[in-house]
Amino acid sequence: MTTAIQKPNDAKRDIRSLIQSDSVKAQMAMVLPKHLTADRMARVACTAILKTPKLAQCRTESLLQALMLCSQAGLEPDGRNAHLIPYGDIVQVIFDWKGLVALARRNGVQNIAADVVCENDTFEFFRDGDGLKFKHVINYRQPRGAMFAAFCIWKDGEQFDGEVMTKDEIDGIRKRSKASGSGPWVTDYNEMAKKTVVRRSSKKWPLDAEIAEAALVDEVTPPQVVNRPIFNAVAPLEMESEEVPQLSPPHADDVPMTGPTPLADKPASTNYLKGIRGLMKLGQIEEGEFLDFARASLGWDDSLSSLEEVATVAPAKLAVAYDDWQNVLTRFDKAKGAAK
Q1: Separation between Cα atoms, residue 316 and residue 236, nearest integer Å
Q2: How far is CA 159 from the centre of its chain?
Q3: How far apart are CA 203 and CA 198, in angstroms?
Q4: Strands, E, within 192-285: which ranges?
């Protein structure tokens, strides 16, 4: 008896077919912002796999979760705004600083600027009772001298804010990078310094919690696996190849215990809560009106006064609503229309 062996090219073709399937694109479409389509996101993802074949060898649920995160952020994994990086059989999403800036601008942050500061520049950065005071002047008639810091400034509404990192702080980040002795850290140090301070600045920007957590991930952070992803990675697995191996959760020893806390350590209800809130935001649904609808039409207890309480007291109800969101949204729209 001969056992068929799946070739690497077959694996790539299977995963590309999966990503382009209607079921996967339908789930991406649920969270994608208006400026992106599921068809385009699927095409960009398939191109990323062609450029980096090792992605096809990663866990399917890890790759799909990475695509879902890019979809939530509205950033294409095109190697400019976001990157899909294979670590063994795990896919890590890395948001480039250009992608972080695009995210911030979509969330109302304006006038974002970043640069390095050199010894012969005029530079002031301090806060007093009236807020942040900033000044950076370059004398282009003389050499700027050695770089000693990098900054990022921005305006959020009427508030002017900024972040500064010294060269020692930046070098501390560099030392933890696997590519500290080669690549852009050697050939384009100033650009990497700007990228580093922009990434730190993103902690202060009004980004969704899930995206903000991923925004802090870079090449020095160990990859994490989400065992209970917001993306439903089970339903779309419709590949007919019998040689596709069964996917199992990673062992505890597979993931280094440094860096941000893995979502796998958080209760599943926490992920569903974030997922429901993300879908409600996309649908411009207020929490109060959704709770009223859920009590009247989904059988939720009248005593549940917030989504956090639902996640704590009745997490299964939250899970059912998320997993059947398309139907829930249709019923919500009908109920809202009838009430007018």
Answers
A1: 22
A2: 25
A3: 9
A4: none
Each residue's pLDDT tens digit, 269-303: 456 777 788 778 777 888 888 888 888 888 887 77
Question: Which residues face 166 on adjacent strands?
Answer: 149
HSE-up (13 A, CA, CB side) for residue 126: 4
Give yes or no for a contact between 24 and 236, defined as CB atoms under 8 angstroms apart: yes
More confident residue, 270 or 113: 113
Distance CA 163, CA 204 (A): 9
d(CA 226, CA 265): 9
Q: Beta partners for 131?
A: 128
- DSSP state at residue 259: S
Q: What are phi and psi of 61, to 5 degrees?
A: -65, -30
Dist. CA 46–CA 240, nearest whole Å: 19
Tally Cβ neighbours within 10 Å of residue 153: 19
Query: pLDDT tens digit string along 128-157?
Result: 888 899 999 999 999 999 999 999 999 988
Q: d(Cα 201, Cα 160) in Å, to the nearest integer?
A: 13
Break the chain into its structural domains and give their ranges. 8-95+215-254, 108-206, 267-339
Enter the tokens of residue 207: 């980004």
Mean pLDDT over residues 55-59, rounded?
Answer: 90
Identify whether the C-beta of residue 265 lies closer than 8 Å to the C-beta of residue 200: no
- Tell me how far apart the alpha carbons of residues 333 and 277 are, in angstroms, rounded to a whole number: 17
Q: Compute the mean pLDDT over every residue in the chain, rounded to the nearest whole number.
A: 77
**Hey, what are 197's tokens?**
């301070």
